[in-house]
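Box 3.1 A note on notation
Throughout this textbook, protein chains are presented in two layers. The first layer is the amino acid sequence; the second is a token string describing backbone geometry. Keep the layers aligned when reading.
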Amino acid sequence: MKKILILVVLVFAILSACNFSSSTLSFSEIENVPNNVQEKINANLKLQLINDGEKGSYIIFHSSGDIERTDVETEGDKVTIHFDVSNPQDDVEKQYTYYLTTDPEYDVITVLVNGEEMPFEVVTSL
């Protein structure tokens, strides 16, 4: 009985350690933007960040081209989002909305469009 109890405690400790060490970093495109977020979006801005008050932020990117690839990487306290944009068209601009979740350890969010840094024009909260 003692061996089973020790085994259960050991398994629980390992699972708990895995849970605490896992990162909650995720980045995904949002198809249906919530109404309270859509109300805060300014269509005249290229890049906007809207914090939802929890662990995540909405990243709104208006582009005259197609986003071919997105990538997220971390280094230290910084999260870098890469957008590769192609086929720019002067008369057409599309809104791309993404949701980024991070851990508190990340203080800085940087966006690179085709390798060049693009600053957020507005950062707001819901």
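Residues 32 and 61 are 15 Å apart (CA to CA). The longest strand covers residues 66-75.
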